[in-house]
Amino acid sequence: MPTITGVTIDDVRFPTSLSADGSDAMNKDADYSAVYVTLTTDTAAPDGSPLTGHGLTFTIGRGNDIVAVAARQQAETLVGRDLEEVLGDLGGVYRGLVSDSQIRWLGPEKGVVHLSLAAVMNAVWDLAGRHAGKPVWRLLADMTPEQLVDVADLRYLSDALTREEAIALLERQQDGKAARIAELEATGYPCYTTSAGWLGYSDEKLRRLCQEAVDEGYSHIKLKVGVDLEHDKVRCQIARDVIGPDRKLMIDANQVWDVDQAIEWVQALAEFDLTWIEEPTSPDDVLGHAAIRKAVAPIGVATGEHGHNRVMFKQFLQAGAIDYCQVDTGRLGSLNEIVAVLLLAAKFGVPVCPHAGGVGLCEMVQHVSMLDFVAISGTHEGRVAEYVDHLHEHFTDPCIVKDAGYVPPTAPGYSTQMHPSSVADYRFPEGAYWRERHADAVVAARTAAG
Amino acid sequence: MPTITGVTIDDVRFPTSLSADGSDAMNKDADYSAVYVTLTTDTAAPDGSPLTGHGLTFTIGRGNDIVAVAARQQAETLVGRDLEEVLGDLGGVYRGLVSDSQIRWLGPEKGVVHLSLAAVMNAVWDLAGRHAGKPVWRLLADMTPEQLVDVADLRYLSDALTREEAIALLERQQDGKAARIAELEATGYPCYTTSAGWLGYSDEKLRRLCQEAVDEGYSHIKLKVGVDLEHDKVRCQIARDVIGPDRKLMIDANQVWDVDQAIEWVQALAEFDLTWIEEPTSPDDVLGHAAIRKAVAPIGVATGEHGHNRVMFKQFLQAGAIDYCQVDTGRLGSLNEIVAVLLLAAKFGVPVCPHAGGVGLCEMVQHVSMLDFVAISGTHEGRVAEYVDHLHEHFTDPCIVKDAGYVPPTAPGYSTQMHPSSVADYRFPEGAYWRERHADAVVAARTAAG
């Protein structure tokens, strides 16, 4: 019988802090990193190549090794297991990992052990897609309502969404699936860009990148804010000048404010006609987000990239705390938990606009948004997935954005495989890039010491 | 100048699963464990002994090593630092650790990196107490209101509690401090016992231990519930029979229920006159706890041992979701975050009944409850700290319980130092105990293989 034969875990880090890519009010020196999980088997994919599964979670540098230790412990429980049994019960595999009581204690279902769970289960889902010869969005969209609900983690959600409601909700979308898939193939899934607005960029670079975004057809642009109100006004003015009155402008504070401060700051920027304020305060503060939303309306409130599990999303929705639900594919417990959140958001009528950027998040969120469109919410009205233009060159099946829309991936899997050469070069600390940089630093230190 | 010269991190695990100590509806095979942090200096304590600091966080087995990796990274940033500078700004030291943006990404302020932060800062507080020649509860209680507020982490709390309110609240308690300290010294701080009610114990053992608790003078007893309703009725009946109608009976479900299920189950046990239901559902579910509390009143709702940071406690209090606030000294970011929660709870008038048990938690919570009584809430009415009678023999200054009350610790520090021999024997996997057990397992496997 075909078996999962092995796992490798790589701590991969890219030196993005050198160019201020990814800089915001909370995170000034992010080195975009991934814990990269590879599952191997003793069998072949439908195309005859060796069947493997690749998954990752995203971190911003130090501590990536901590997540790697956790991922190894979780992934090793899969080694030696019957492949058909694993792929035939993806809900059960997830539940087995998430309910290991000793590991659960370290969260539960949050922080390092949930990031690592995401990496491992993302690899399992990639394996499932490759085994079926389908991209993951399509694998999921082709499931029956019962099958899709069976992979979803609905624990702790029944006061907001029962299994029966979830199935009924999915059944209502069965009819239009084919037409929506055709629409996706024709026009892609709408996205917005954050590439212009990092806080470490100069005003000139901001202006130039906003213009480039307009030229590339984007209708939504997002800026980082939250360090200096007067400078935020200048930056919003530059963006608004370039994009004109009709395109949408969003801002993102990356959790730097207390609740009352968030309200004051956002109100002071309201004149720039903002679509949403993202992460105005602690990602744990459901009631705080609800208070902010009430005070800054009609500016919307968006959060979720640090929403650590489905229970938090349930509450954001129950409390009327968010206008946009930003699930993250590296932080939630892979598609098992993401499907649960998509179902909740559909029930509450809140649009899902996944968080992306980082390493490999764009590659994954396109699958999430397409699944949402085809099988769950049935619409992309008011929805845009995030897109950030960096680090895609490290992936074997990078996402493709055309006319401000993600083009549906067609290759089997979750688009999560990295080039072996990228992994080899950027493994920390032993990859060629880091060894060389370490050698340079030693030389510099010696030179400085005279 | 005196300096922090080094740190050691030990992964210490006790084989508690062998005796079902610590078994509950979620955690059936806990091996009580600690990540144990030792800070060394090049100076001496007031009594002339080498000045060291000892701290820990508590886990239940596998994954203790993951927390140890994180603790090492955080603790190493303290090595080489000027001791007086560190001890003169304990708020700043905490804020420096908690705001390392790359490590923060892995939480933020939750899960593994927050457990490890607790272990490290607990060691720093122990060091501070030893340096001052005072037990930590007394070190904190002797601070001025401004000094105490300066060590507290009030970030994200200002919509519920401002710095000015916190200072005013503390000033109101200044006068009675001496009398309350005298009261503590005379009668101790009231506690309850969970030692009787682990789920893996037989009914006869439950009955015997309840009787022992009564004989020892306890007025409160807690049982684990949540696997089998009919058996829970039997267990509650046994406990009520033994303790009589006047003593308090609490139950603890360790997060196993969804919200509606919690309500039904607790209502079905209401006839046993329960004081509180603890952890009825996901520890993240503020709104769920609020719904349960409304439905099961007058039975109280208690939670907090998995309350991952002060923002969660703020919301539990704002939402009227809890009757008892169970802070945990291994999960919150040490006394810096605990003081913030004590201040919040005092403002909202909710009693703090700290979670304990595990490894070393009883040793720490006595300091927390005494600080709360002397300087913050000013009362122990309606409050009981948890006490579980195991593993105290591994500590050099174990907590002492007399007539169902914690006796105020008098030795300098946080009562967190373990015997070097305990650390040596139970270090995992290289300690003598685990080496021997591994050898036994190898022999057993060989024998079984014939």
Account of the 3D structure:
- Chains A, B: Residues 203-299 form the Mandelate racemase/muconate lactonizing enzyme C-terminal domain.
- Chains A, B: Its cofactor is Mg(2+).
- Chains A, B: Keywords: Lyase, Magnesium, Metal-binding.
- Chains A, B: Its EC number is 4.2.1.68.
- Chains A, B: One of its GO terms (molecular function) is magnesium ion binding.
- Two copies of one chain form a homodimer.
- With 450 residues, chain A is an alpha/beta fold.
- Chain A has two domains: 4-135, Enolase-like, N-terminal domain (Enolase-like, domain 1, 2-Layer Sandwich); 169-406, TIM Barrel, CATH 3.20.20.120.
- Chain A is built from 18 helices and twelve strands.
- Chain A has helices spanning 64-76, 83-87, 90-98, 101-104, 112-132, 136-141, 145-151, 163-172, 177-187, 203-215, 229-243, 259-268, 286-296, 310-318, 334-348, 361-376, 420-426, 432-448, and strands at 4-13, 33-44, 50-59, 189-197, 220-224, 248-252, 274-278, 300-303, 324-325, 385-387, 401-402, 405-406.
- In chain A, strands 4, 5, 6, 7, 8, 9, 10, 11 and 12 form a nine-stranded mixed β-sheet that branches.
- In chain A, helix 11 (229-243) links the parallel strand 5 and strand 6.
- In chain A, helix 9 (177-187) packs antiparallel against helix 16 (361-376) and helix 14 packs parallel to helix 15.
- Chain A is globular, with a radius of gyration of 21 Å.
- The N and C termini of chain A lie far apart (64 Å).
List the defining traits of the structure above.
homodimer, 12 strands, three-stranded antiparallel β-sheet, alpha/beta, globular, 450 residues, Enolase-like, domain 1, nine-stranded mixed β-sheet, Mandelate_racemase_C (chains A, B), 2 domains, magnesium (chains A, B), RHMD-like (chains A, B)
